[in-house]
Every structure is written in C-alpha cells, then in structure tokens.
Design a protein that fits this description.
Shape: elongated
Number of strands: 11
Oligomer: single chain
Structural class: mainly beta
Helix content: under 10%
Order of helices and strands: EHEEHEEEEEEEE
Radius of gyration: 17 Å
Mean pLDDT: 91
Strand order of the largest sheet: 2-3-1-4-5
Largest sheet: 5 strands, antiparallel
Amino acid sequence: MKQKEMAVAALCNGIVIDHIPCASLFKVVNLLGLDKMQNSVTIGNNLDSGSMGKKGIIKIADVNLPEDTLNRIAVIAPHAVVNIIRDYKVVEKRPVVLDEDLIDIVRCNNPKCICNNEPMPTHFHVVSSEPTTLRCHYCERIVSHDEITLK
C-alpha cells in the first residue's frame, strides 16, 4: 500500500486559494500583492491535481482578505476555489466570481485609449467568462483571455 503525504503543510488559520492554473499562479501572487505581505505565505506550483493534471496553490496564514479582493482572481484563474481555514478545518469553500465590471484591475492594450493617457482608472465590461473576454468601457477594445494584462 502506497503511503501518501501532503505536498504542502497544513494551515491552522487563514485562506487557501486552490485550483489555480500553473501559468496563472504568479499573476495571482502579483494581483494580491503577496510580495508585500508580512504573513506567512506558501506557494505551490505544478502540484498533482485529479481534475487539472497540474495546479498551483497559495496558502496565506492568519489573514482574512475581502471577498472583492479574492474575486479579482477570477480574471486570470476563473476556476480557482477559496477555502477559509479555522483551527485546521475548512469552514467555508467557495469559487471565485467574475464581476460584470472590472475597475482598475486590467490594463487596456490600446495605447490611444483615454485610460492610458489620463490619470483615471481602467474600466472593463465582461463580454464572456468562458474564456474570459473583456471590453474596454472607454475605447470598446475587446481583450481576450490571452491578452489580459493586469495593472
């Protein structure tokens, strides 16, 4: 009989962001500003997953991030799942949700767009969530999932 062990240590309290595509893992790290965080952060990449083949995972100890912050992940990892951990137990498990409007999250790839030439937040409308396709509110440029650049 094979002995199994966890690839990443258990977390007492905090959040676990699971089912992140490997190619998007470090974009999620940047999006959440984890490099500036003082809490203990564990990042696992290319971990075995039954549903994805390989996946990324992020564990953040002793933190409770706002729902709207966590939902920003849906722009680049639409199938990610957030687990809230208390006393080593999952007390809540929910998928990230892509909002209909994205304010100051994604950069417009049109160099002539007003949001790239004036001090103002970007604003995108979600055209499709599968795959993620966005439309700039100002210049109406369509941005496909592969073209999305985070601010």
